[in-house]
Specification:
By secondary structure, the protein is mainly alpha-helical. It folds into three domains: 292 residues, no CATH class; 83 residues, no CATH class; 86 residues. Helix 8 packs across helix 19. The termini are far apart.
Length: 524
């Protein structure tokens, strides 16, 4: 007899706990601040600060791609800029031609759903879809004449091009800095694995495998004189994953040396073939994809949140759309956590905005400088906990509205708080009603792929390296799928025992394969 679906509890403990800051937070923080500052100062000199909302749409693209090697970063940020221009163009055109506010809310929610699905499918990384959704949703409600759309899009494109240059500026100085950081992260994860208590071993193994896979992908386009020695360090990190990684502290020491830019040891060892790709973009968007329920949640939840906001009298319904879109995470439990964090962060952010009003309304220069400081603060804090980052994001979003002209502070604060509560509540309700029943199917499919990869690796007669890579990637995917399904509501009983057993057998196979790798590759 099949077990009935389980309703997962929604935890409160640890929701506001502060984490360690992201290791590269200054890069996106100051890149975005510079990308915003130059256009803002130009507009300020021209007396057209009312156009800053359009340049901000392009400048915020500087938040993306900082965890990627420069060749991949160039492509990533270029696509983000083009996406921002396309989304803004559609939004401004609708703002000029569609008179119904309710229809604009629907259109904004549909575009937000597209952002969610595409950003998840391309694995674009932080800040993901939410910045594009914020920019585009705002533009749907900016008073617009159709004849002004090309000029305004030109501002978005120009600011985006400058943001691209800012993101690429460090390349001549540290051309392989991102690869070094990726490998350092793998070594640091290995060090935490070596220090882990028995209760935390499973999570530490997953973190090490994921970081090692990311490091291998980062080395894809690196020249041999860089990829060779860095690959040896990745193998050392994976030795800890396999169960014989040396003493705790050694990987951390090597990671520090990488981050400090110390010379790499010479190595003639070429990097092995990369992990097999997990499928094309079309494969990840096929019918039945686990990404599609998330898009449906954003479309339905964003629309209902915006309409509810209109019903209670808010004049900024797009804030409710953005709140709902930001709430939707990989599963219901994570969405609950994000909703609580956003409500807390927005409340404190509104208090900060109120405290800053005398300064920001003292002059245009003070307003611009405050917005830039808040941008840096948002990136500095958001990796500590989402609520802490939104403490800065909230007043910054309100200040962007102020660039076009001051509005009654009470109305701005009231609308923001109302839309936050409405968006969070409707978003959570949508998570419960629009269930992701495919999460369990994804876990079963990941189980099958991990088992197949394990058998193929164990039977490999020759070089086990490629088989080991595929097995490591399959185990990472299995853990991610199991975690998503474990936090989903109304989910059928999950194969927890089989997942745990497959992970144990998979890591035992990795340990056995480590002894068959070439000696020159496993040497310290």
């Amino acid at each position: 007899m099949a077990k009935p679906p389980r309703v997962r509890p929604l935890p409160l403990r640890g929701l506001l706990r502060l984490n360690r800051p992201a290791d590269i937070w200054p890069k996106p923080a100051f890149s975005a601040a510079l990308a915003m500052a130059v256009p803002d100062l130009v507009l300020l000199a021209l007396g057209r600060l009312d156009l800053a909302l359009y340049t901000a749409a392009g400048a915020l693209c500087a938040l993306y791609g900082h965890d990627r090697p420069y060749a991949a970063r160039a492509r990533t940020v270029a696509w983000v800029v083009l996406g921002a221009v396309a989304g803004t163009g559609a939004a401004l055109t609708c703002a000029a031609l569609v008179p119904s506010t309710a229809v604009l809310v629907l259109l904004a929610a549909l575009v937000a759903a597209v952002h969610k699905v595409l950003c998840d499918a391309t694995r674009i990384g932080p800040p993901g879809n939410i910045v594009l959704t914020f920019v585009t949703s705002t533009m749907f409600f900016v008073p617009q004449r159709i004849g002004d759309v090309p000029a305004h899009l030109g501002l978005v494109l120009a600011a985006g091009a400058f943001a691209w240059l800012v993101c690429m500026a460090p390349a001549p100085i540290r051309p392989h800095g991102p690869e070094r950081i990726a490998v350092a992260r793998a070594l640091e994860a290995a060090d935490r694995l070596l220090r882990a208590e028995p209760s935390g071993l499973a999570r530490a193994r997953h973190a090490t495998a994921a970081a090692s896979g990311a490091a291998r992908r980062a080395l894809a386009g690196a020249p041999a004189h860089v990829a060779g020695p860095l690959h040896r360090l990745v193998l050392q990190a994976e030795a800890a994953l396999a169960g014989h990684g040396g003493d705790a502290g050694q990987p951390a020491d090597r990671a520090r040396a990488l981050r400090k830019g110390e010379p790499l040891p010479e190595s003639a060892t070429p990097p092995p073939p990369l992990d097999a790709p997990s499928g094309t973009l079309a494969d990840r968007l096929r019918p039945g994809s686990p990404l599609l329920p998330a898009g449906a949640r954003v479309a339905v939840g964003g629309t209902l949140a915006g309409w509810a906001s209109l019903a209670v009298g808010s004049t900024h319904p797009y804030w409710a759309v953005v709140t709902a879109a930001s709430v939707f995470q990989a599963n219901t439990t994570l969405s609950w956590q994000r909703a609580v964090q956003r409500v807390v962060g927005n409340l404190l952010g509104l208090a900060l905005f109120t405290a800053l009003l005398p300064l920001t309304r003292s002059g245009a220069v003070a307003m611009v400088l405050t917005a830039l400081a808040l941008q840096v603060g948002a990136e500095a804090f958001i990796s500590r906990n989402y609520w802490l980052g939104t403490l800065c994001v909230t007043p910054m979003a309100l200040l962007l509205n102020e660039f076009a002209g001051s509005k009654p502070a009470a109305q701005l604060i009231g609308d923001r708080w109302t839309d936050t509560l409405v968006g969070a509540a409707v978003g959570l309700l949508t998570c419960v009603l629009v269930t992701n029943r495919r999460a369990a199917d994804r876990t079963e499919a990941a189980l099958a792929r991990a088992r197949e990869a394990r058998h193929a690796a164990a039977a490999a007669p020759a070089d086990p390296g490629p088989h080991r890579d595929r097995l490591a990637a399959a185990l990472v995917e299995l853990r991610e799928a199991a975690d998503v399904a474990a936090g989903e509501w109304w989910q059928r009983a999950l194969p927890d025992e089989r997942v745990a057993e497959e992970e144990r057998e998979g890591h035992r196979t990795l340990a056995a394969l480590a002894g068959r790798l070439p000696a020159r590759a496993t040497a310290a």
